[in-house]
């Protein structure tokens, strides 16, 4: 496989033109409705303006935010997940403490304190550091051969 950064750049080059073409043609098609001329314009103009705004926003997210988030989740996924677990555990423990159930609050807090280091330090390596499928198959074949030889 390709390097993660190279794959993201290649995907961006490949998909940029179709994304822009789709968004721009739809926005141009809706501009007539957005000007609000003719009968029933008070109904169609807000719909067109909302659709145009949504397309601009979605195009921005597709071009910039999605590749950034993909890179972050791929390389730092275990840290993001452990942060999410910490937040959820803290909110849950606070809730149970507020409603007066101290035992459950302490149990959730303790589970969060124990679970987060396990996720961070014992989870799998990031994707770009993992072996390729071919290397994994070679290792499996070698292990099977060594097992039968002994």
Task: List the SSEs and their pairings.
Layout: H1 4-35, H2 41-98, H3 102-122, H4 133-149
Helix pairs in contact: 1-2, 2-3
Bulk shape: flat
Average predicted confidence as pLDDT: 82
Helix content, binned percent: over 70%
Low-confidence stretches: none
The total count of helices amounts to: 4
Give me the count of strands: 0
Amino- and carboxy-terminal Cα gap:
34 Å
Question: Which structural class is indicated by helix and strand composition?
Answer: mainly alpha
Question: Per DSSP, what share of the residues sits in E-state strands of 2 or more residues?
Answer: under 5%
Rounded radius of gyration (Å): 26 Å
Order of helices and strands: HHHH
Describe the main β-sheet briefly: none
Quick recap:
By secondary structure, the chain is mostly helical. It is built from 4 helices and no strands.
What do these coordinates show?
The chain has 150 residues and is mostly helical. 85% of the residues lie in helices and 0% in strands. The chain is built from 4 helices and no strands. It is flat, with a radius of gyration of 26 Å. The mean pLDDT is 82.
Structural features:
single chain; 150 residues; mainly alpha; 4 helices; flat
């Amino acid at each position: 496989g390709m390097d993660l950064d190279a794959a993201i750049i290649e995907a961006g080059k490949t998909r940029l033109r179709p994304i822009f073409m789709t968004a721009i043609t739809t926005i141009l098609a809706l501009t007539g409705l957005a000007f609000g001329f003719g009968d029933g314009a008070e109904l169609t103009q807000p719909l067109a303006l909302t659709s145009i705004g949504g397309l601009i926003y979605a195009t921005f997210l597709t071009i910039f935010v999605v590749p950034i988030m993909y890179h972050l989740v791929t390389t730092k996924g275990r840290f993001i997940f452990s942060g999410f677990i910490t937040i959820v555990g803290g909110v849950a423990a606070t809730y149970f403490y507020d409603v007066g159930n101290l035992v459950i609050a302490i149990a959730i807090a303790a589970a969060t304190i124990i679970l987060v280091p396990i996720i961070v330090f014992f989870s799998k390596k990031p994707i770009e550091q993992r072996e390729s499928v071919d290397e994994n198959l070679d290792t499996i074949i070698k292990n099977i051969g060594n097992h039968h030889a002994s």
